[in-house]
Amino acid sequence: MCDYFDWNDDDKKLMISLRYCSHEICVALTQPTYWQELTKGTSISILTKGHFVPKELEGIIANDDPSRLQLILQREHEEDKKRLEEISWIIYRRFFADPREDPELNGYDRDTDKIIVSASLYNSLSILRFHTNQYLLGVGNNKIIDIENLLGISITIDQSLPNFYRFLTPSNKDTTITNLFTVLIKTLVKQAQYQYLIAFTFRHAPSIVRSVIRMKEFNEPVQLQYAKNYKRKRAEQDEKQSITSNTKKSKADSNQNVKDEITPDEKIC
Q: For the chain, which residues make up each domain, given as ranges?
């Protein structure tokens, strides 16, 4: 999901919101190697701005605190105008209109005869608050070592690109081993992504809670006054209802006394 594609007035700058986007889309769209091919031979520059906010927190934390992740494309020369427009459509179709997983990222690589599982984890937090390698791989890569020992395989980790990992293991004739390798690595990735969500929440929750408390304190006098007025009106209504009920009961008792004094054989008129 994309929040907006926003061109400036002179069509020299395009700002693409990455709000609500997954780790996978944000990592793919911020890879230098991806942009080097698209912008080759042009004056177009690309930069990112803002923080990657997990989509689960959208609607909970303020829109501008922290600022959301944006991709900014900018051209210097008029002759690059058409190319910038072409790039915008490439991005839209590949990542937003009909997003598809790149087959080269996961599966069997014929050239190396290896099984590949890729991982994307965009991190906008400091390394002290969220250390990607530690959460994904474990201390001293112990999570990966555990999988190697369990399945009796060797795993190579490629970290040549920012926020992106490739886990490779030699192809195995036993599909059960291959499937377990794939499942376990993908589970580690999902686990790390959820841990990022937790870390991000703890980093920004204090400001959220403070704003809620301030709002509560601001509204409390109004709420107290409303509660007092409500209780007063309710008491008045209960009193009126009680008087009405007592009056009806008194009339009913009076009528019943008259009936009790008349015998069945006595003529009224």
A: 5-97, 107-210
d(CA 121, CA 27): 7
User: From start to end of 65-204, where are the E strands?
Assistant: 70-74, 107-109, 114-120, 156-161, 164-170
Angle at 213 between CA 209 and CA 217, to 5 degrees: 170
Model confidence, pTM: 0.73
User: What residues pair up with 48 in beta bridges, in sequence order?
Assistant: 71
Which uninterrupted H or E stretch holds 11? none
**Rounded (10°) CA dihedral 255, 260, 264, 265:** -100
At the top level of CATH, the class of 107-210 is alpha beta
- Strand order, beta sheet including 164-170: 107-109, 114-120, 164-170, 156-161
Q: Which of 37-41, 42-46, 91-95, 209-213 has the lowest mean pLDDT?
A: 209-213
Integer Cα distance of 107 and 216 in angstroms: 52
Q: Are 65 and 207 in contact (CB under 8 A)?
A: yes
* Interatomic CA distance for residues 203 and 126, integer angstroms: 10
pLDDT in tens, 156-179: 999 999 999 999 999 877 889 999
Pairing of the two strands 13-17 and 70-74: antiparallel
HSE-CB at 63 with a 13 A cutoff on CA atoms is: 2
Alpha-carbon dihedral 208, 70, 50, 63, rounded to 10 degrees? -20
Closest CA to 64 of 11, 5, 17: 17
